[in-house]
């Protein structure tokens, strides 16, 4: 078993509702990959790349899983599609209902077609590092040789600091009916 760190984001409504509701519903789906061991706060972030779009809502979830990196990636793509994401359409870095990125899987380093671990832009993205630092500040990114906390501290511009603002931290984790981790543990107790 390894810990998979999944970056989550969205900025337009899905069938589940606004971006916040989509992330809550997606976390419940992520429980099918293994046991959810941590979930960050939700963060309101400015778009990166294509700027003419709504702010994003981002988070990071940690899941203990026995799945391979490829299996996790395929599952994430399936969950994205279930919430209306079409990766073949739209603008690069444009609006999306749901974006799920496999950031890390244990200390695996992978360079395959369509799959690179750790995520190749993890050290450049405050919208990933801020929520990841909340749940795993001392985690060392093997390809960077630095902890998540150290990488986040390197992103020091005022624009970057202002781009990432925590939202209702405890409400989304509860998803309206208790702690996500507790629900995941209860599901796996029947296995």
From TrEMBL:
The keyword ATP-binding applies. Residues 92-103 form the 7,8-dihydro-6-hydroxymethylpterin-pyrophosphokinase domain. The keyword Translocase does not apply. Its EC number is 2.7.6.3. Keywords: ATP-binding, Folate biosynthesis, Kinase, Nucleotide-binding, Transferase. Belongs to the HPPK family. This is 2-amino-4-hydroxy-6-hydroxymethyldihydropteridine pyrophosphokinase. It comes from Occallatibacter riparius. The lineage of its organism: Bacteria, Pseudomonadati, Acidobacteriota, Terriglobia, Terriglobales. The gene is folK.
